[in-house]
Amino acid sequence: MEFQNTLSYAQNLDSKDSLHKYRDQFYYPKVNGKEVIYFTGNSLGLQPKNSKEYVDEVMRDWAELAVEGHFYADKPWWDYHERLVEPLAKIVGAKTEEVSVMNTLTVNLHLLMVSFYRPTHKRFKILCEEKAFPSDQYMLQSQVRFHGLNPQDTIVEVKKRDGEHSWRTEDIIAKIEEIGDELALLLIGGVNYYNGQVFDMKAITAAGKANGAFVGWDLAHAAGNIELKLHDWEVDFAAWCSYKYMNSGPGNASGIFVHQRYLDRKDIPRFEGWWGTKKETRFLMKPEFDPMANADAWQLSNAPILSVAPYLASLQLFEEVGMKALLEKQKLITAYLEFILKKVDDQVASTFEIITPKERGCQLSVFLHGEGKSLFDYLMKNGVITDWREPNVIRLAPAPFYCSFEDMFRFGEILKAGILSK
Ligand SMILES: Cc1ncc(COP(=O)(O)O)c(C=O)c1O
């Protein structure tokens, strides 16, 4: 497709965009009285306008029904979280029984590691990407220490090659084979938070499993952003947060995936709680734990309804739009943003290097050679919300639900003015 760097061209793309009308379903912060251009859906998605209605419903039921709301609210609380499973299964490519919603992301990864990191004398190593998201690093290190092992001898990081900005699948697979029968677990971020790279989850999962390891994915930057086929790829487990591309609200509930082959089994070690035991007999308050036959077996507590309600509201929009349309727009708008960046780069004889490889979702990470944090500050002051990562990278994520092609054009003009004004 031959793009053009003009307002009318961008507006024409918007007029053909079936998702354009969804802009009105979200709230935008304002800078200088104008709605911002929002590039940080990879960090915290915008608030869908319907989320208040879902939260208000719970508040009203709580006021009017109190404890009776557990069973007699319009959406009873005791199984409220089950309403999220069907839309989520479509988003992550899973069977409904493989998905559950609970806790927050790091908590869930810890809980899943209880089941899927069971080091033995021979097989004890964990493979992850170098400079994984810090919370994942802390999680892995603390799990390893919990098992009485030393992180230095246990955690192996796959590195990028010198001078390259992304990981090569062949290097990851070579590392898996090198570790061989010492490899207990492979756990990587499916989309890297820093460079936006989408890992070849199918190939890497197959290689990990062929070598006898469990394979899990942190899908914080993947869920709702890229196509996932967790069941077909035979991933063992995964977890994601919902407040980035899934617009559920700050710190909101996380989702988990556990492959069908591990469901309805009592022999899997788990940290257990009453919401994981069969719902038919839960309130008989028996001492024996009888796991739910689905991923809910990993649930511990009754669901935080006020956190799950806005997640359900947002998933309703995903149901309406469907991942197919979102993915189509994601590809087009990200390509248009890339084109705009290159045009600005030509015009200012500058300085940008897109470090995101072609395997990407909607995030472009841009290295600003010779431009410091002042450019980021300029963008923020002029209504462009991006985020900054040391040493000199801005991350731009044009989330297809609420970013427009006109936003990309306007961003290019603001960026150019920012560089030229120095
Ligand atoms: C890749 C990745 N993993 C883990 C986390 C931690 O998420 P939480 O604070 O919900 O546990 C984040 C948060 O941004 C993340 O980006």
Automatic annotation (TrEMBL):
Residues where N6-(pyridoxal phosphate)lysine is found: K244
A molecular function GO annotation: kynureninase activity
Annotated positions binding pyridoxal 5'-phosphate: L105, T106, F133, P134, S135, D136, D218, H221, Y243, W274, N302
Cofactor: pyridoxal 5'-phosphate
Cited InterPro entries: Kynureninase, PyrdxlP-dep_Trfase, PyrdxlP-dep_Trfase_major, PyrdxlP-dep_Trfase_small
Keyword annotations of the record: Hydrolase, Pyridine nucleotide biosynthesis, Pyridoxal phosphate
Pathway note: Amino-acid degradation; L-kynurenine degradation; L-alanine and anthranilate from L-kynurenine: step 1/1; Cofactor biosynthesis; NAD(+) biosynthesis; quinolinate from L-kynurenine: step 2/3
Catalysed reaction, written as an equation: 3-hydroxy-L-kynurenine + H2O = 3-hydroxyanthranilate + L-alanine + H(+); L-kynurenine + H2O = anthranilate + L-alanine + H(+)
Highest taxon of the lineage: Bacteria
One Pfam family this sequence matches: KYNU_C
The enzyme's E.C. designation: 3.7.1.3
HAMAP family associated with the record: Kynureninase (MF_01970)
Stated family: Belongs to the kynureninase family.
Subunit comment: Homodimer.
The protein's role, per its UniProt record: Catalyzes the cleavage of L-kynurenine (L-Kyn) and L-3-hydroxykynurenine (L-3OHKyn) into anthranilic acid (AA) and 3-hydroxyanthranilic acid (3-OHAA), respectively.
Entries under PANTHER family matching the protein: KYNURENINASE
Protein name per Swiss-Prot or TrEMBL: Kynureninase
Organism in which the protein naturally occurs: Croceitalea vernalis
Lineage: Bacteria, Pseudomonadati, Bacteroidota, Flavobacteriia, Flavobacteriales
Gene: kynU
